[in-house]
């Protein structure tokens, strides 16, 4: 076996996966003085982390499974343009996860989940600031604010409830009537009824560029990136052995940050983790990066439009269709339809690029941030659902503490890797 133990005797750490979570983690570990190798068959950020809405969604503190969501789900599923899709071909494989997802809507569990998401989200922006300041890339994070809009008068009660809920959780929120929306965001259609503005909202300029900048800083700091797939990990008396598409490698510690594929690696380590993927879609309109002033969410259509340096991005859909099915082209047509209704000027939609990616989601909507219960050399950082960009930098700091054997800044009990284990 080729060994990559550090000649100088320092701790050598492998990070499996070069998405936003893996790259932020690799950088944090390097800043702790560790010698870090990142392994991924794709380039940094080229998976799901490339195509997200670029929104630091700190106010998304509700778990995905709540009684209200379960009540709405059939309508969202049956509407051909609705936000939830469950391809019938995949349904038999999905059922065990779905059962756990529905069970997670129990009020006590929702309350615990909300607290655990709020803890991570509340620390997210400050962690991103620290991460980006350390590499001189502060300009990648923009204090943009966030606008959430409703088209229908019927949505007033829902918007009021949401505003009160957000304020209870410490978020600054302003109520906007139609004319105030027009003043704040002239790029939107005049068919809107009302909205909520979150002055504290942040976005990134371009999520792929962001991860590439993390990777550049990592490599400039002496970090190694290997284009290799990790087939399996095993704890050894010296640390951890990795079987990879480039042969076997040995490290002192490893972090599994392989997004929606992480459960396969966890299974090889004796851990059952019910990770599913919520496939999400986007359009990017390359010439329309100035079409909006800030990210805009549609509460009714459940899509988000974000102005980015690469263009205007329109994202949406939760398609519970696994990792293997091809993208469903109908989703792009639905996103075009949503954008047409929401934008004042829908020029550029026909020239938009299309993309689909895999959100890694556990039934309780919380990520795994933990160390293997039996193998202290193996750590996990995955399952960040709709919030992987938001939570990557704080996750990286927490994993840094785990790898160094220090006390993490947050209580990590809610994010345990064993929480789904049937004993
Ligand atoms: C349409 C859409 C919009 C979104 N919008 C937002 C948003 O606005 N804000 C937000 O916070 N989040 C958003 N998200 C979610 C966010 O993008 C994800 O949570 C995040 O990208 C997950 O990052 P990751 O690093 O865990 O996974 P990934 O980016 O998927 O990276 C995992 C990496 O692991 C690699 N890998 C897999 N298996 C192996 C293996 N065996 N060996 C080596 N490498 C392996 C893959 O090649 C990949 O590069 C959105 C997601 C989608 C789909």
Describe the structure.
The chain has 423 residues and is α/β, with parallel strands linked by helices. The protein folds into two domains: 1-65 and 108-143 and 200-273 and 363-423, 3-Layer(bba) Sandwich (FAD/NAD(P)-binding domain), CATH 3.50.50; 67-107 and 144-196 and 275-361, D-Amino Acid Oxidase, subunit A, domain 2 (D-Amino Acid Oxidase, Chain A, domain 2), CATH 3.30.9.10. 32% of the residues lie in helices and 25% in strands. The chain is built from eleven helices and 22 strands. The chain has helices at 20-31, 67-78, 91-103, 107-122, 124-134, 156-168, 178-184, 207-220, 262-267, 330-342, 388-404; strands at 2-3, 12-16, 35-39, 55-56, 84-85, 141-142, 146-150, 174-177, 194-198, 202-204, 224-226, 230-236, 239-244, 247-251, 253-256, 276-285, 296-298, 303-308, 311-319, 353-361, 368-371, 378-382. Strands 5, 7, 8, 9, 16, 17, 18, 19 and 20 form a nine-stranded mixed β-sheet that branches. Strand 12 and strand 13 form a beta hairpin. The radius of gyration is 21 Å and the shape is globular. The protein binds flavin-adenine dinucleotide (FAD).
């Amino acid at each position: 076996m080729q060994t990559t133990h550090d000649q100088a005797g320092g701790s050598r750490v492998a990070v499996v996966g070069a998405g936003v979570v893996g790259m932020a983690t690799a950088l944090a570990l390097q800043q702790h003085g560790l010698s870090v190798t990142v392994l991924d068959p794709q380039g940094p950020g080229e998976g799901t982390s490339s195509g997200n809405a670029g929104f630091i969604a700190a106010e998304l503190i509700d778990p995905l499974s709540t009684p209200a969501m379960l009540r709405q789900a059939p309508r969202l599923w049956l509407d051909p343009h609705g936000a939830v899709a469950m391809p019938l071909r995949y349904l038999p494989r999905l059922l065990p996860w779905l059962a756990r997802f529905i069970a997670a809507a129990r009020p006590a569990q929702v309350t615990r989940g909300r607290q655990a998401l709020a803890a991570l989200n509340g620390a997210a922006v400050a962690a991103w600031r620290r991460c980006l300041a350390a590499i001189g890339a502060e300009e990648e994070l923009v204090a943009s604010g966030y606008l959430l809009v409703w088209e229908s008068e019927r949505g007033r009660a829902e918007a009021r409830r949401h505003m009160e809920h957000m304020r209870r959780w410490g978020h600054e929120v302003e109520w906007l009537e139609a004319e105030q929306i027009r003043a704040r965001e002239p790029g939107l259609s005049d068919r809107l009824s009302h909205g909520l503005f979150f002055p504290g909202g942040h976005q990134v300029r371009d999520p792929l560029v962001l991860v590439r900048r993390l990777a550049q800083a990592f490599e400039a700091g002496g970090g190694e990136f290997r284009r290799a797939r990790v087939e399996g990990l095993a704890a050894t008396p010296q640390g951890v052995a990795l079987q990879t598409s480039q042969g076997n490698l040995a490290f002192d510690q490893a972090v599994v940050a392989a997004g929606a594929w992480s459960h396969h690696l966890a299974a090889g380590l004796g851990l059952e983790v019910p990770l599913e993927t919520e496939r999400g879609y986007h359009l990017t309109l390359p010439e329309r990066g100035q079409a909006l002033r800030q990210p805009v969410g549609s509460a009714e259509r459940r899509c988000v439009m974000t102005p980015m340096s690469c263009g205007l991005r329109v994202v949406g859909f939760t398609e519970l269709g696994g990792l293997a099915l091809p993208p469903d082209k109908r989703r792009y047509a639905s996103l075009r339809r949503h954008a047409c209704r929401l934008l004042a000027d829908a020029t550029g939609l026909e020239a938009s690029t299309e993309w689909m990616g895999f959100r890694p989601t556990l039934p309780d909507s919380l990520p795994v941030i933990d160390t293997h219960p039996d193998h202290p050399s193996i750590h996990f950082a995955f399952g960040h659902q709709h919030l992987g960009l938001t939570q990557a930098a704080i996750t990286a700091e927490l994993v840094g503490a785990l790898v160094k054997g220090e006390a993490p800044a947050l209580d990590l009990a809610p994010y345990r890797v064993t929480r789904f284990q049937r004993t």
